[in-house]
Amino acid sequence: MATAASASASPAALRAKTPAPGAHPSPKSSLAFPWPSPGASASASAAASGRLHASLHLGGVRGVGTANGTGLHVLHPDVKPLAVPKMAGGAGAQKSILLYHCEEMRDLAQQVAARNDDIELCTISWRKFPDGFPDLFIPNAQNIRGRHVAFLASFSSPGVIFEQISIIYNLPKLFIASFTLILPFFPTGTSERMEDEGDVATAFTLARSLSHIPISRGGPTSLVIFDIHALQERFYFGDAILPCFESGIPLLKSRLQELPDSDNIAIAFPDDGAWKRFYKQLQHFPMIICNKVREGDQRIVRIKEGDARGRHVVIVDDLVQSGGTLIECQKVLAAHGAAKVSAYVTHGIFPNKSWEKFKPDNGEGPEHALSHFWITDSCPLTVEAVKDRRPFEILSLADSIASALQI
């Protein structure tokens, strides 16, 4: 058998059948870089090593090898992690911010800067031409290049909006790193819908105007607003601005914890809208919901649900104007047995000095007066008018703004 014949072949015969090295050329390989032949001599390898020195550097991976006539041999690769750039404002980092402000917001801006050493207060020259139009100047404009910049605004009346919009549109064009607009009170928030054909929703108009602020080198403007009247107004803003909605309710909660009767507090909402707006932030308090019902030509405030008996009841809403609804709510709560009645609004607008309607409780009882009326400093003209008058107490947004600037 062939197998037996092969097995019986002598070693000499096998050696005779094996061609000697170099007797004839090896067949050519189809590989571009074939591996070295086992028969290659050490001297040939050394000679070939000088022909090509290959260095690969791909995304931080470096390999060094030698190529001879038959292939490429990669030695020990040196793998290094990719460098990750440090982001400003990241975890553990504080942004250095230049804070500009309108004249009305001077006091609040000073308080914000006092809260954080990384916030530097800057000034603007607010002048007017003889015809009444603004003559504005930003000192040292070239020195703010590459810096994080913020502007604290107050749109307290249509007359001051144009001059502030002029500054707001100009600051991002000064090659700054980022721009943040702090507008604590969004003044047209209550004009957010149309009830009759021809009504103009000025909330949309103002939102669109702010949506066209030029982008800075860092991207779109960040817009900080406290307790906007309706959360759906966020959809009025375009994609070129980033609205950040904050709340003054944490300030109220901290203040309520300091009261001697803090364990006897109940929260009242003057209508369903206020309840929807704030109940999640105050849900650990007993709640009372009021609503308005029409009786003939009058709208009467009634308690829809909840119990006011023996409680210190705090009425909560986002803003107050004439104060009529708050006063009616105060009276109905007192009639249902409230021991004390206080009020909180984030934005105290009080046109035509309507704050004068609210008197402090000097023993007359909750049906006639309020124990406390808390407002924030989002409306600086109101703050100036009521800061030394009971029952008003100012809860400053300074800490909240300083924190928002580091987002």
UniProtKB/TrEMBL annotation:
GO molecular function, one term: ATP binding
Residue span of region Disordered: 1-34
Low complexity: compositionally biased ranges: 1-16
InterPro entries registered for this protein in UniProt: Pribosyltran_N (IPR029099), PRTase-like (IPR029057), PRTase_dom (IPR000836), Rib-P_diPkinase (IPR005946)
CDD domains: PRTases_typeI
GO annotations of cellular component type: cytoplasm; ribose phosphate diphosphokinase complex
Protein name per its UniProtKB record: ribose-phosphate diphosphokinase
